[in-house]
Amino acid sequence: MSTASEALFARALRVSPGGVHSPVRAFKSVGGTPHFMHGGSGAFLEDVDGQRYLDFCLAFGPLILGHADPRVRDAAVAAVRRGWSLGTADPYSLELAELITARIPWVESIRFVNSGTEALMSALRLARGATGRAKVLKFDGCYHGHADSFLIRSGSGLAGQAVADSAGLAPSALAETIVAPLDDIPALEAAFSAHGSELAAVVIEPIPANYGLLPQTREFFGALAALAKRYGALLIFDEVITGFRVAFGGYAALSGIRPDLVTYGKIIGGGFPVGAYGGTRELMALVAPSGPVYQAGTLSANPVAMCAGLATLKVLDAGGAYETLETLGARLEHGLAKLPGVLCQRAGSMFWICVSPEARRTAPIRKLPGIPVDAASGYKRVFHRLLERRIYLAPSAYEIGFLSLAHTREHVDTLIDAVAAALEG
Ligand SMILES: *Cc1c(COP(=O)(O)O)cnc(C)c1O
Fold first, then answer.
1. Residues 82 and 180 in one domain
2. Per-residue b/e over 250-284, b at no fewer than 16 CB within 10 Å?
3. Does the beta carbon of 183 sit less than 6 angstroms from any atom of ligand 1?
């Protein structure tokens, strides 16, 4: 018996590459047909066959309040009623910028764009404009969007592909990108001593979360910040996932390490398309029209997205949110720790389930070579068994899961029990 999703996917394959508009959605790495979801509410997604799924993918990160949160919906609907694109200066982006700059001292000035990818492209251009240097240092397994400069050894959508992460990249762009392994201070020192004086920036996901979740040590960040400073390279924290997720001010707030530039996305738009980059007033003053670094966008600071982002950040700013999310996350981690053959690495409400008999032995996993080779096949099995039980995880072994404020202890326990059953059966 074929499902409505299968029929839609057959049609989608005829009109779009792989039938999707972002690669991981296609289920290629776990096999099977992607379920076409027609909506979501709270902790649940509903597919076109009328099945409800307890969702731990949450649109890959933006939905920290859950699906279709009424506060965000009301703000977005009100913005639509007033006019959904103005192309002018507007009070909504001002209010969002004022909230962020008031709460996050290292962001004195901020520019809104339309995606995380754009935020990273723009931050790198700004770093190049500020330093007069061309090269950028990134880390193995960190994803910074799909601009040429960053698509080298970069993450889950690309896991399994050989050497270059994509065809069609300009060799000249790749030549300016240096890649270092995570969690390896000697390799970091070597990269700086070889290229340090040519580096415009060093960019990192401070909690790498696009190739599993690979927490880094404080020592590593200490070395990174010191080397960047010594060599005059700007330190860019890519907090597209971690910003407003692990704390309002992201990893920088948790760690006390101050980046020169920071990028945001995902949560900052409340689930609408937004990205942002920010930093000191002095650096950001280099951006057009106040400075010579050009960057623009027809739909930038779209009022619907700004109002949805603002509604989301106000809830997070009101207090208690991160404590609640930490409690839920800890419950999940402890529940999974009792199961054999699975490792859960976690930061607040972000978690990665690594399914392999080897996983615990090498824990904590902090860099790519530590990920067991059978993690993908193990995850594939668990993913489908969970899907049968109407639990939706990201359709890739290397994507992480998320909890939201719409999730309850019972939802977390449902996931733990389902993983236990999947591992047994
Ligand atoms: C998702 C993500 C991006 C890219 O953001 P898009 O909005 O998908 O372009 C960049 N960096 C990190 C760390 C991300 O998780």
1. yes
2. bbbbbbebebbbbbbbbbbbbbbbbbbbbbeeebb
3. no
Find out whether the beta carbon of 210 lies less than 6 Å from any atom of ligand 1: yes
For atom 11 of ligand 1, the residue with the nearest CA is 144
* Per-residue tokens: 405: 């404020």
Instruction: Read off the pLDDT of residues 208-233 as tens digits, 9 standing for 90 and up.
Output: 999 999 999 999 999 999 999 999 99
Question: How far does residue 239's CA lie from ligand 1's centre (Å)?
Answer: 9
User: Which of 47, 55, 251, 266 is an active site residue?
Assistant: 266
Cα 287–293–296 angle (5° rounding)? 70
Q: Any idea of the CA torsion for 356, 357, 362, 364, to the nearest 10 degrees?
A: 60
Query: Mean pLDDT over residues 348-359, rounded?
Result: 96
| C-alpha of residue 399 to centroid of ligand 1, in Å | 12
| Together in a domain, 256 and 374 | no
**Buried/exposed code over 326-355 (b: 16+ C-beta within 10 A; e: otherwise):** bebbebbeebbeebebbbbbbbbbbbbbbb
Ligand 1 neighbour 271 (Cβ under 6 A): no
Given a contact cutoff of 8 angstroms between Cβ atoms, the answer to whether 395 and 383 are in contact is yes
Q: How many domains would you assign to the chain? A: 2
Q: Is any ligand 1 atom within 6 A of the Cβ of residue 265?
A: yes
The average pLDDT across 92-114 equals: 98
Residue 160 confidence class, pLDDT cut points 50, 70, 90: very low
Please give the single-letter amino acid code of residue 406.
A
pLDDT value at residue 386: 98
Strand order through the sheet with 401-402: 342-347, 350-355, 401-402
Tell me, yes or no, whether 136 and 263 share the same domain.
Answer: yes
Q: What is the pLDDT of residue 174?
A: 86
For 312, the domain range is 70-317
